What we know:
There is one protein chain. With about 600 residues, the protein is of the alpha+beta class. Helices cover about 25% and strands about 25% of the residues. It contains 16 helices and 30 strands. The longest helix has 27 residues. It is elongated, with a radius of gyration of 39 Å. The chain starts with a strand and ends in a 5-residue tail after the last strand. GO terms for molecular function: protein methyltransferase activity; pseudouridine synthase activity; RNA binding. Keywords: Methyltransferase, RNA-binding, S-adenosyl-L-methionine, Transferase. InterPro entries: DNA_methylase_N6_adenine_CS (IPR002052), HemK-like (IPR004556), Methyltranfer_dom (IPR025714), N5-glutamine_MTase (IPR050320), PsdUridine_synth_cat_dom_sf (IPR020103), S4_RNA-bd_sf (IPR036986), SAM-dependent_MTases_sf (IPR029063).
Amino acid sequence: MKELEAAVLEQDNGSRVWKFVMQHWKAIVQSREHMRKCFKRGEVSVNGSVAEVTKLLLTGDVVRIKFNTRAAHESIYGREKLTVLYEDEELAVVVKPSGKTMVAFGYMLPFSLRPSSMARSNDTEHMDDLPEAEEEEEDDNDESEFQIQQNVSPTVGQQRIPCSIHGLEKASNGLVLVAKTTETRSTLMKMHNSGEINRIFRVICHGVWKKQDTGPDNTSSSAYYDADSTIPIDAECLDAKCIQSIKVISVTESNAAEYLTTLDVKPFSPFLGVSVRRYLMSTQHPVVGNSGNSKPLKANRDKGLCSAVVHVDFIHPTLSTLISLDLGEPTKFQQLRAREKKAYERRQQSDLEELRKGGLENVQNFDRKTERPIAYIVGEKDFFGMRFKVSPATLIPRSSTETLVKATLSAKEERLANKSPVRVLDVGTGSGCLLLAILNSIPGSLGVGVDISQEALDVAIANSAEHSLSDRTSFHIGDMGRLQDSSELFQAFDILVCNPPYLDSSKSAKLTSTFVGTEHEPPVALFAENEGYGAYEMLAKSIELDLKSTSPHKILAPHGLVILEIGNGMGRRVRETFGFMKFERAVADNQDCERSLMFSVAPQE
């Protein structure tokens, strides 16, 4: 209780008493709200009589205030009760909410804890004369600037009881150990500084931890520390000596950070959150947040800090029993991960549509240690019921391309039922899987594969031999934009098939980084200029030159068919590109998307 009085001087004659109180004792009353409550409690008198807030003062009046500090603080800090996980006569473990400074938390404690019968009189007398409450401004490093040694808050170890034994940042929440008596405070402070109090910080940080594994061939390959993994402490990093252990709780994909890793970090006591954040920052995996030694997450408007004390354990100083308490992680952690995961999946879906445009599945069959597709590791891939050799020089066969095989076989039955042998030209043959699957399904048929890569042709030749089709195939170097330069192709083919690259080359970096495995495939087989239509335009130019040529040596027969694979939404523009030919039909894939277009040589006018 603070009691003050003052005489009204000439300059205050005619003033309202409330203005007089605010002018002379604002440091005590602090705000108009407190001032009104002070009048409501009858704590302001004029000449010995309780005054109304609007009373006019006269020169010589004596104004007295008996300000109930405890009542004022209770009106601020007593409205919100703290969560108490453990309490006895000597100590308590209390949850500090995020957004509250340790000063505010200290003021809230008396209104949330039971009075201790063991407390001395001078422990509790401070409750009626609390220091003036001033909310701290947000401090990036609440703990690092503590006046008491060993990372404790400004309210830690103070004479006021109850008091906190360790501090947390304003933006953080979690378990705080509180002493309720002077003797307990002294004992707990010694335990805190000697490492006898254990705490675990749950944090969300940027990125994912990679480790180096040595395989049987003594080669190193990267892998991630997944859930339940223990991450070794890097002794070279800042504050490494402060960290006892780090355990991975979960790994979440994120557009902004690629990955978010949730960790349980156990520092050595008395080191706390600042040391945890400094260490993680120095490992290039800063904690998500807007405080010091943290890094905000793009598009996350939460100005808090993804750090919370979720576990504390210690031996009770009097009972000699283990006190071990756990607190569930903050709801905002779960919300953040869910939001990032949802946004990531939306982006993935968008990018997947771009990949499907090129007939590419989401590459899930890859080795996580090397991020290489399994097909490249084993060197083989199934396609249309056959097994084909593949290498990094060839595109991995996709199930969507089987639509092109089916379209070709259907066209043969409808248009070339009596033609034998059927001659097939595969432009951009790669591993040869498309050509060989067609020839294997059409008895007696003959085929030629052309590709710009000799390494790819070597794989195709091996596949031809593997399936006993060498006597019915030949393979040649060639460019789809200059087919006339290859005399081996003047065979009047009945069917020309082509699965050209048709992903937009301007998006190559984005797609290969987003979908693990695609970066190992040859870009020339995936991406094309001019929004993905460049290869179609080059092929159309070659075919149009062939059809207009007066030479008796032709690539296509007069009844020849051209069957192309296309990406989603590309049908209209590809039809326009091959407008010099007769469009026959489009064939949909299993997802009911246009995947193949068939053209025929237009009759001569």
